[in-house]
């Protein structure tokens, strides 16, 4: 399996950012990930 560019801590930070009210699309663009990747991580 391919290693992620993002550590587990970074992924958790991105999820917390969205929980605090940031929009998913804007957050994904800011961190350089696609929306499907974000939702895959969320599962």
Poorly predicted regions are: none
Instruction: Characterize the main sheet.
Output: none
Shape: globular
Helix amount: 55-70%
Rg: 10 Å
- Structural class call reads mainly alpha
Strand content: under 5%
Along the chain, the helix and strand elements come as HHH
Number of strands: 0
In short:
Helices cover 65% and strands 0% of the residues. With 43 residues, the chain is mainly α.
Notes on the protein architecture:
The protein has three helices and no strands. With 43 residues, it is mostly helical. The mean pLDDT is 92.
Keywords:
43 residues, mainly alpha, 3 helices
Write the layout of secondary structure elements.
Elements: H1 8-19, H2 24-31, H3 35-42
């Amino acid at each position: 399996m391919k290693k992620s560019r993002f550590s587990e801590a970074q992924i958790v930070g991105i999820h917390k950012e969205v929980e605090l009210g940031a929009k998913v699309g804007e957050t994904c663009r800011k961190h350089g990930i696609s929306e499907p990747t974000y939702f895959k991580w969320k599962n």
